[in-house]
Amino acid sequence: MDSFGFIIHPLYIRDLFRVNKILRICPPRFLKKFLKYIPPYKISTIKINSSKKEILRGYFIGCPLLPQQILDLDKDSVLGKIILAVRIAEKLGVKIVGLGGFTSIVGNKGLLIAKNTRVPVTSGNTYTAYSVLKAIFDIAKQREKKDLSQATAAIIGAGGSIGSLCAKKLAYYVPRIILTSRRREKLEVLKKEISHFNSTNVIIEKDSHRAVKEADIVIVTTSTPEAILTGDEFKKGAIVCDVSLPENVCLEKGTERHIFFLKGGIIRIPFDVDLGIDIGLPKNMVFACIAETMLLALEKRFECFSLGDNIDVGKLDEVAEMSTRYGFEVVY
């Protein structure tokens, strides 16, 4: 039986308690400091059954670092810890490994990890981008906005692979796209690429708060461990999709503005899935990055599918075909 591995890390200190309740006796401040010294380890076995028969097996491997630690600690030590986590999966006999959460942004978006491990790795960003776009197009149809030819889209975090994929695809449907990112040079490259195949007006905006004010569609996909936008900043009636983990949109303010908010990147699996741990989603639902790794294992496509910033937009169609073939569904 083929198997896969998936690297996860805690988003918050409280997430550690789901895995090991004994850790509750440790003061959070001490536990946070101690995390960087804890080596990666196997957390659980994932069993996927169809008609009561196991068709695929996986393993969650824990990389015990918080998002801010992954961003702030020495890059080589963080990279080494993630590589060690992948090698633990290798020893379990897996044929592909998915990089979850902030582990997918380390080492040139996974490229260095792939170079230093024997098993292929994927970030899951292609399926995540597809799930965001699918949800947005579905909601637009439901809200009788079938014609997007007058819409403005804003991509917050367009310099990453999810944001750039969404921008490239949306350029076929909307006349105006506003891009934001920490690094302007990445946006200049993306703008030039889009202009080669489409006449969409691409605007680079430094301030994400200004970017969302006039957007009918907003996609938030940033590697920021805290909220950066609030509900009162969006245009009335806007479709807002936050795919970031932790969430980057705080809705405590502004819900009365009648925006349509959806949490992107969640997939319903048509099989009986036992993850072995609680990931905070209903049964048989997983994040798209996990689902992509599952799909590739089911397809026996043991390859580095989604890595780096510039993922081929054609892979959106590939992952859509795989998703349809196995009955995976986007949830929003």
What is the compact description of this entry?
The protein contains twelve helices and 17 strands.
Structure description:
This protein is an alpha/beta fold and 332 residues long. It has 2 domains: 3-122 and 266-331, no CATH class; 128-263, Rossmann fold, CATH 3.40.50. Helix content is 35%, strand content 22%. The strands form 4 sheets. Strands 5-4-1-3-2-15 form a 6-stranded mixed beta sheet. The protein has a 6-stranded parallel beta sheet with strand order 8-7-6-9-11-13. Helix 7 packs across helix 8, helix 7 crosses helix 11 and helix 7 packs across helix 12. The longest helix is centred in the middle third of the chain and has 18 residues, at 125-142. The chain is globular and about 50 Å long. 43% of the residues are buried. The model has no long low-confidence stretch (mean pLDDT 91).
